[in-house]
Amino acid sequence: MASILKTIYSPQDLQNLDYKELQCLAREIRETLINTVSVTGGHLAPNLGVVELTIAIHRVFNSAVDRIIWDVGHQSYVHKLLTGRQAQFSTLRQYGGLSGFPKRDESIHDAFDTGHSSTSISAALGMVLARDLKGEKYSVVAVIGDGSMTGGMAFEALNHAGHLKKNLIVILNDNEMSIAPNVGALSSYLSSLRTDPKYSRSKDEIAELLQKIPHGPKLLKVVDRLKDSLKYLVVPGMLFEELGFTYLGPVDGHDIKAVTTMLKQAKNLGGPVLVHVLTKKGKGYEPAEKNPDLFHGVGPFDVVTGAIKKIPGAPPSYTQIFGQTMINLAKQDDKIIGITAAMPSGTGLNKFAQEFPNRYFDVGIAEQHAVTMAAGLAAGGYRPVVAIYSTFLQRAYDQVLHDVCLQNLPVTFALDRAGLVGDDGPTHHGVFDLAYLRNIPNMVIMAPKDENELQHMLKTAVYHNAPTAVRYPRGAGEGVAIDSQLQTIPIGQAEVLWDGEDVVLLAIGNMVPEALKAAENLRAQGISAAVINARYVKPLDEELILHYAARTGHLVTVEEHVLMGGFGSAVLELLERAGLSEVKVKRIGIPDCFVEHGKQKILRANYGLTAEGIVETVLAGEQRLHKKRKRIKAVWGRE
Ligand SMILES: Cc1ncc(C[n+]2csc(CCOP(=O)(O)OP(=O)(O)O)c2C)c(N)n1
Ligand SMILES: CC(=O)[C@@H](O)[C@H](O)COP(=O)(O)O
Ligand SMILES: [Mg+2]
């Protein structure tokens, strides 16, 4: 059969198709999603779940004019396929290729860049205000999942939008899943809307019914007067109605016709409207339907079996070691608590959750709440560990500062995905944490050189009587042996791995193994490089660093983090404080830019975060030093 998908160059082309053809199109889109993501990796299950919904959205709205904002944006692949990006689809999430998230730079059909959750309603409301202030006419639609709806920002926006009463459409894509099964009272409420037949009648239907029966109109008035009590029994979506939204639904999100009809209705209604759409995450691909968590964001896999392709012999990931260490520590100490903001598998806390269900809390996508709740637990005598991606802690900055650090509470931040995360790109790289945490008094910050050191650092952090952060990268560890006994590492103590005379390579975290390789290469070229594993970014091992700085006069810092305000900056500040201004310092790290998406290996090479990059930097510095020495000698007769 001829491909329908190939005839879709823009969403306008959907208008020529009947519902049967649209269903065929949906099947083709699913096939394309599965085949492509099985090679590139990506957010498969969320996209499989929104195929029909996305088709319906593009039938009702014109994304070249109307604004469609995809919350998180991980479910925007279908939208990309329908908006002129089929030819590039195989480059999805690859270096230089299509982004896995909406990007205004990529297409006029992408109204707003997303990646972090729960921002869509705020952004949409802002666009509504801009539209109305300018007197323009178009629809603004936020598409938000039930998981993202648990984020505080979403409620702040609903609250404000309900108050402003402006024309705005929110589509709630309810698949009962965040990455893991969705949690919380809101999730239970949405389930009740799904399942309880007494909720399934619309307000209008009930009014119509009452008009028809004897004394009905009178009854309607009574009902109206008693709305605060009775409405709860008869009106679906009461929570949203009370917030000022007209609630429509629930509607089967895989029925293109039904969704199209409801979206048209929403478009014609005035004021804020919420359309509740029910979908199945992973729809149409059995492995993803059965295991939506695994196929939420997945690496390359075998299409036939659904088996994830693993690199044979790959060492355990930092995440796995973190998860296991949490269990080991918690077995010895019932004060240890594990907290995640909707990322149990991503952070490795899922196994801890099984072993210690009473000491594990998934708070939903609510990073701010997670941090302040941890502060409360610490104030109550517990040792909470907030396991969180570096990029998502950005959202809880004030909570870290005001609720944890100001009171010097012993909360541990296990910052996974610190550094360049790869395919997710700029919204997800965890390259700002050192800068945003280092300036907060009381905070202790460490980064392990390998997965074995991670477990010792975690123990150190948990038993330090102050806020601590341990940052570690996405992916496999170094493959080193794992000690069976956990130790604590004295706060602020670095480690000399190689001694040397000409230059000192001062590295932090996963850059330490690269520095070691670089030192070996330099030695072969006759340059004697010392290698220090800094371990702590705060407090620095000042004595050791100053000793080596004075001895070699040439210091290179290496960090997978932005240069501004990071580890190297901390070293420069130290040298300035110590008055060692003549020491030559070169910092390797990420300059003042947002890093694109692509494999970690490519990105690291681009920014010199490799052994080769370190060698080049040292040699360039040596040449300059050599020239400088020669110049001085020519003028002064001495170096
Ligand atoms: C602030 C923030 N925290 C955590 C995440 C990680 N994350 C991405 S998608 C997701 C689940 C979203 O669930 P939902 O909105 O229901 O979308 P679904 O995948 O079910 O379609 C989470 C927790 C994020 N992107 N942003
Ligand atoms: C969209 C999102 O925020 C998450 O799904 C994220 O992509 C997960 O990243 P990891 O693959 O590193 O767990
Ligand atoms: Mg969901």
Structure overview:
GO terms for molecular function: 1-deoxy-D-xylulose-5-phosphate synthase activity; magnesium ion binding; thiamine pyrophosphate binding. Keywords: Isoprene biosynthesis, Magnesium, Metal-binding, Thiamine biosynthesis, Thiamine pyrophosphate, Transferase. It holds the Pfam family DXP_synthase_N. This is 1-deoxy-D-xylulose-5-phosphate synthase. The radius of gyration is 28 Å and the shape is globular. It folds into four domains: 5-198 and 236-290, Thiamin diphosphate (ThDP)-binding fold, Pyr/PP domains (Rossmann fold, 3-Layer(aba) Sandwich), CATH 3.40.50; 201-235, no CATH class; 318-471, Thiamin diphosphate (ThDP)-binding fold, Pyr/PP domains (Rossmann fold), CATH 3.40.50.970; 495-636, Rossmann fold (3-Layer(aba) Sandwich), CATH 3.40.50. Residues 226-233 have low confidence and may be disordered. The strands form three sheets. The protein has a seven-stranded mixed sheet with strand order 7-6-8-9-11-10-15, sandwiched between helices. Strands 1-2-3-5-4 form a five-stranded parallel sheet, sandwiched between helices. The protein is of the alpha/beta class and 639 residues long. Strand 13 (503-507), helix 22 and strand 14 form a beta-alpha-beta unit. Helices cover 42% and strands 14% of the residues. The structure holds thiamine diphosphate, 1-deoxy-D-xylulose-5-phosphate and magnesium ion. Thiamine diphosphate is lined by residues 46, 49, 72, 74-75, 116-117, 145-148, 173, 175, 177-179, 281, 296, 341-343, 365, 367, 392, 395.
